[in-house]
Every structure is written in structure tokens, then in C-alpha cells.
Design a protein that fits this description.
- The protein is an alpha+beta fold.
- Helices cover 45% and strands 14% of the residues.
- The strands form 6 sheets. A 6-stranded mixed sheet has the order 1-11-12-10-9-8.
- Strand 14 and strand 15 form a beta hairpin.
Length: 679
């Protein structure tokens, strides 16, 4: 599971300052940047996006072999970059190629409003890995006319026609992922996981007919394929060498084989070998074998996430998006936070879950703070700050899981701006002081508890299917909300101080509660257009968690809605009772998951997580107008350059920083263009 929920708290509660530069001078150069306290994390801002940089602290302390391993793994990730583009929408690669050709070859007026609008649109497309917003899933709207684009295409001898052109300006394929209630979610989602005639019922019936060799260890059916109809018959097009995306996958394999040759230890090398076999065959049993081996391979300085993993982009939660994150262990921070995984059983035993839903033995949970060295696919440019994998419930139960917090990513966020927006939306000076003093620690602990304890906790009842089968389109938001609730429940617990993680558990817990309620009920509304429902899974979970405890605590005035000078605030009056409410909701969400109670999850999410108070929304948008900082943030990646001797052997790997967002995107399109033709 990927933690973008806590990421969004960080992004919203911290005001990032804009960093402007002359866009007409963007190029593909990289500049070597030494790690210094004066490092400039800001790159640029456009539309609703802020682009940042991150460093790789401690790079010089790695051995040459370790640096080489990181380099190979990073190249493997980038080799599959275009897969994510095609997964997001069937015309994305064609559109990107055309827009980039215009951008690099247009010799006309680059000072006009239309050209600036074209530049911004292309950057938004780059950021979202396609023409749909990376978070809202709405189709991006060009602020230039179709006639202007036609003229640009003509002037640069570029071809973009038919549906691939028309879709930029019409109402077709309006949502990448449609999670609305009571509709054909597959048919109304533009994501390229399904053929044009495939429906919800087709998907459900197709996978209902599949059985795993061992029902206690169900295979992840649908994870690495596209489901289409050929002559009216449903068929999977598997992502593998020689199959769908085969040309890019062959490049991934090439780099993974090089990485295997410099693996740090046998366990790591064996896991890489299984990942290579999986890419070659597309076999889901091999995928499970790989995940077991990968989860068990905990030694060494280097780790990675690579393949088709998170299912948020599938309206029914079957198909994994391609992603890659390369990690270097931060030993100092990992040792400090290791106490959480060491005490995972205590947290499970003392949770408010029903006894039948608790694990008797929490096994194999590892937690590390890591330094990111590169990202691709679903993890870039918009990145999580925490990840817990693998996603298969049976592997979590029998083998364990790996949880990581992306330390240098969090550091970049925390050092890229100020607190203006926070001051606008806090209830009073006391709340502000708590946030400024404890906010960063509270965020880090919530990330850790969400990933290490949250996703690893609880178990399904015997005979209950995987959540994608039982909870369907609500599976992702329930799981993220459940993990959030685990974190919230324990953030207000003296155990954290006993473990040495905090000096004042009540103040840290109060800060975390203030932050969550403020964001879930108010601040995250800045991400929606007035009149929109909440559709993104993480935004839904924050709202249904916050709205549920607000309503259930009304009789005791646990959370008070305050209107002062025409502005709305939510003030927590009783943190103890709020803690109890979080526990009650956690117990219920685990029951829903354990029993596969679809009616209950539908009532919870639709009743509390979808609809928005329009008057409050309008107020929030008006209050937010004073801030120039963008509500969404992402990153360019450091560029790793392999230095070689005359024999072609790597003798060093240099870290450089890209000067511009456009420069990196154009470099990627030029150097990692491995899907020239996708049908």
C-alpha cells in the first residue's frame, strides 16, 4: 500500500513558496549539485503544481558496487516509464509525442497567452503521466483553442488527429477512474486496463470463475494484464516479455539482470532472479514467490520497489500500475524507528479490534527510513512518502511485510516553504503553536504507524475473499482509512513515550488530531472544484473518518464547529473521547474488511466520504485565494551518471540535479522511449 494520505497532510499544512524562472530557457542540461544546507529544493510552479528537488544524502558513503546496483535499478525503473503512460490512457503516448514535438520545434511567438497556456498544459500532462489529473482523475482542460493547437501542429510538421486530437477538447473519457455509486465504473473509466466493451459485470464474472491452486494463498488475478473482448470473448493480454508492453519489459529485464550481478547478498539476488522470471513469464505464482523472497530479503543497504503493484487506478481494484522506487537505508533513523516493528505484536494485542479479527502472531514486519535515489512510473513525479508491501493479505499474515518512510522526500517537503495556509485554517493560537512545535514529528509518526502497524494489522475471517472481491470499488479507501485509524488511535497513547519515540505524547497526539480533522473536514477541499464530489480514495478516507467522528461526537461536543468572522473552524474539545471514537471506527472498519461487508462499506463511504458541504467549500476556496502556493507537489529526480573506463566498466556513479522539469521530461522521452507502438 502506498501512503499518499499522509503526504497530502504534509503538502497542505505546509505553505510552499513559489520559485519562478524563464520557461523559454528550459533545456535538458543537468548540473552537479553538492549536498549543502543551502540546497534549493524548489524548481518551479505552474497551474496547481509545485515541482521540487530532493537530495541523496550519504551517497558518497556507498561502495562502488552499491552505487552501481542503485544505478542499474534506477535504469530498470525508467525503462518501464512509458508503461504507466499507456496504462493511464490509450492515447497518452501519442498525445505526449505530438505535444513534445511542438514544444521542441516551434519557432513562433513564445510570449503569447496561447503559447504560455500550451506550455502549462504540457507540463500538467507530464506531471500526471497523461491527460487526466494525477489526483482528481478529471481530464485536464487546455486553456487554448483547438484551432491554435492545429496551427502549432502545422507549424512544426506534427501529426495528431482523430480521437487522440479530439479528446483534448471534447467531453469523451472525462474521468480516468470513475468511482461513482450505481454506475458501470469500468465502462466510464478512461484508464487503459480494460477494452472498450468491457463492463463491471464482465470483470466480476471473469475473475469469479478463476480459482487459485491453494485457496488459502489466492493469486493476484488480473494484476498484470489488460482485459479485453475479442469476438465477444473476454481475454487477458498479459504484461510480459513477448506480450503486452514486451519491448519495455525486455529493457527492464536487461537492467535487472545487471543488478542481479551486483546484488549485495544471495537473498537479494534470488529475489531479483524471481522478479526477472516474472517479467519473462507473467506467471502470478512466480509473482507471489518473488514477493515472499523479496519480503524476506531484509539485509543490505539497498532495496527497491518495481513492477505492477498498486491498484488505485483500477476502478475495481484488480490491475496494478507500474512503479519503481529505489531506496538506500538510512541506518540511523531506521534504528530509531525500529522500535515500532519490534513491538508490532503489542500494538495488535492492545488494539480495539474484535478478538477474532486480531492476528495471533504478527510476523516479519520490518520498518526502515530510507533515502530515495530514483523513482518512476506511478511514483513519479507525484510520490508517496510511505509504502507498505506486499499487498497480498496472505503474505502479510504468513511471511510479513516491508514498511518504509521516504526520509529525504519528507525532508524536501519540510524545507521547501512556510506556514501561511496553516495559520489561516487553525482554530486558535494554541493550535498553531502545537502544529509548529510538533507537526513534523506527528506526521512522521503517523506515517510510520499507518504503514508498519496499520497495514500489517488485522486478518480476514476464514473463507472471506480478498477485499477487491468483497468490497469492490470501496476496497482502497477502506484500507487506507483503516490504516489511518490505526495510526490515529496509537498517536494518542502513552506507549509512544514509553518506547522513546516522543517526549510529550499528549501534545504530539493532540497535534496529530488537530491536523487530521482540520485537513479532512476543511483544507483538502481546496483540491476540488466547487460542486464536485470527493472521488479520490485517500481524500474520501480522510473525509469519512473525520465526518464520522464529528457526527458521532456531537452529543458530547467532542469536535465543535466554530464560525468566527464568517470563517469556519473545527475545534477539538475532548481528545480523550475523540481517541475513543477513532477506536470505535477502527473496530468497525476492521469488521467490514474481515467479514467482507459490502453494504456497510458502501453506507460508510457514501454517507460520510463523498458529498461536500457546498457553502463550506465555497468559503474554503475563497479563503485560499490569498495563497499562491500550489496544493499539489511533486519532484524531479536526481540524475545518476555512470562513469566508465576504456573497457566499459563502471568506475564511478555521479549524482547530478536537473535544472528544469521540462528538461528532465524531455530527456526521459528521448532516452527511455521503449513503447513506440502500443495497440
Amino acid at each position: 500500500m502506498k501512503l499518499k494520505s499522509i503526504l497530502n497532510l504534509v503538502l497542505i499544512t505546509i505553505l510552499f513558496l513559489s520559485c519562478g524562472h524563464d520557461k523559454s530557457k528550459e533545456n535538458t542540461k543537468s548540473t552537479e549539485v553538492k549536498e549543502t544546507t543551502a540546497f534549493n529544493h524548489n524548481v518551479e510552479q505552474f497551474a496547481d503544481i509545485k515541482i521540487l528537488r530532493y537530495q541523496i544524502p550519504g551517497w558518497e558513503n556507498l561502495t562502488l558496487k552499491e552505487q552501481t546496483l542503485v544505478y542499474y535499478l534506477t535504469q530498470a525503473g525508467l525503462a518501464g516509464r512509458d508503461i504507466m503512460w499507456d496504462q493511464n490512457y490509450r492515447h497518452n503516448l501519442k498525445i505526449r509525442k505530438a505535444l513534445e514535438n511542438v514544444y521542441t520545434n516551434y519557432g513562433g511567438d513564445k510570449t503569447s497567452t496561447d503559447w504560455k497556456a500550451f506550455e502549462t498544459y504540457l507540463k500538467r500532462v507530464w506531471f500526471s503521466n497523461g491527460i487526466h489529473h494525477h489526483y482528481s482523475n478529471d481530464k485536464l482542460k487546455p486553456e487554448f483553442s483547438s484551432d491554435y493547437l492545429k496551427q502549432l501542429l502545422t507549424d512544426t510538421n506534427t501529426t495528431l488527429e482523430g480521437d487522440a486530437f479530439d479528446v483534448l477538447f471534447n467531453d469523451a473519457d472525462a474521468k480516468k477512474v470513475n468511482q461513482a455509486k450505481g454506475v458501470d465504473n469500468v465502462g466510464l473509466s478512461a484508464v487503459n486496463f480494460y477494452g472498450p466493451d468491457v463492463t463491471n459485470s464482465d470483470v466480476q464474472s471473469f475473475y469469479a470463475a478463476k480459482t487459485s491452486p491453494n485457496p488459502e494463498r489466492p493469486l493476484s488475478f488480473g494484476l498484470n494484464s489488460q482485459l479485453v473482448k475479442e469476438n465477444g470473448v473476454l481475454k487477458e493480454r498479459v504484461y510480459k516479455s513477448g506480450g503486452l508492453y514486451g519491448s519495455a519489459i525486455d529493457e527492464i529485464i536487461t537492467w535487472l539482470e545487471l543488478a542481479k550481478g551486483v546484488a549485495e547478498n544471495e537473498a537479494q539476488g534470488n529475489a531479483l532472479g524471481l522478479l526477472i522470471d516474472y517479467y519473462k513469464t507473467g506467471d502470478l505464482q512466480t509473482w507471489d514467490d518473488y514477493n515472499v523472497a523479496w519480503t524476506s530479503a531484509t539485509a543490505g543497504n539497498i532495496d527497491y520497489i518495481n513492477s505492477f503493484i498498486e491498484v488505485y487506478n483500477d476502478p475495481l481494484g484488480y490491475r496494478g500500475s507500474y512503479e519503481n522506487i529505489i531506496q538506500i537505508n538510512d541506518f540511523d533513523m531506521s534504528q530509531k524507528m525500529k522500535v515500532l516493528s519490534d513491538n508490532a505484536q503489542w500494538f495488535e494485542d492492545n488494539s480495539p479490534l474484535m478478538e477474532a479479527h486480531k492476528k495471533d502472531s504478527v510476523v516479519g514486519v520490518t520498518y526502515k527510513v530510507v533515502t530515495v535515489a530514483g523513482e518512476a512510473g506511478d511514483a513519479s513525479p507525484s510520490t508517496p512518502i510511505g509504502v507498505n508491501l506486499p499487498n497480498a493479505n496472505w503474505i502479510r499474515k504468513e511471511v510479513g511485510s516491508k514498511s518504509v518512510s521516504l526520509g529525504n522526500i519528507i525532508h524536501a517537503y519540510n524545507n521547501a516553504g512556510g506556514s501561511g495556509r496553516l495559520k489561516e485554517f487553525v482554530h486558535d493560537e494554541e493550535e498553531l503553536k502545537l502544529a509548529e512545535k510538533h507537526g513534523q514529528l506527528a506526521d512522521k509518526l503517523h506515517t510510520a504507524l499507518h504503514e508498519v502497524i496499520g497495514h500489517a494489522s488485522g486478518q480476514l475471517n476464514p473463507g472471506v475473499g480478498e477485499t477487491k472481491e468483497t468490497l469492490k470499488n470501496y476496497a482502497s479507501t477502506l484500507e487506507e482509512g483503516r490504516a489511518d485509524l490505526v495510526g490515529l488511535y496509537y498517536l494518542y497513547d502513552a506507549k509512544l513515550q514509553e518506547l522513546g519515540l516522543v517526549d510529550d505524547w499528549k501534545s504530539v497526539g493532540e497535534t496529530a488530531y488537530d491536523d487530521y480533522i482540520r485537513n479532512g473536514l476543511v483544507i483538502q477541499l481546496i483540491r476540488l472544484n466547487l460542486g464536485d464530489d470527493v472521488e479520490e480514495a485517500h481524500m474520501r478516507n480522510r473525509q469519512w473518518v473525520s465526518a464520522w467522528v464529528f457526527e458521532k461526537g456531537k452529543a458530547d461536543n467532542v469536535i465543535e464547529k466554530v464560525v468566527r468572522d464568517g470563517k469556519t473552524y473545527y475545534n477539538i474539545n475532548d481528545y480523550e473521547k475523540l481517541h475513543d471514537l477513532f477506536g470505535q471506527l477502527l473496530r468497525e472498519t476492521q469488521r467490514i474488511k474481515s467479514e467482507g461487508d459490502y453494504e456497510a462499506v458502501e453506507a460508510l463511504v457514501e454517507g460520510y466520504g463523498v458529498k461536500v458541504d457546498q457553502a463550506l467549500h465555497a468559503e474554503v476556496l475563497e479563503r485560499n485565494k490569498q495563497f499562491s502556493s500550489a496544493p499539489y507537489n511533486g519532484f524531479v529526480n536526481p540524475v545518476l551518471i555512470a562513469e566508465k573506463n576504456d573497457e566499459g566498466e563502471i568506475i564511478g556513479v555521479k549524482v547530478t540535479q536537473p535544472e528544469t522539469f521540462a528538461g528532465q521530461m524531455l530527456d526521459y522521452s528521448k532516452n527511455y522511449n521503449f513503447l513506440p507502438e502500443v495497440n
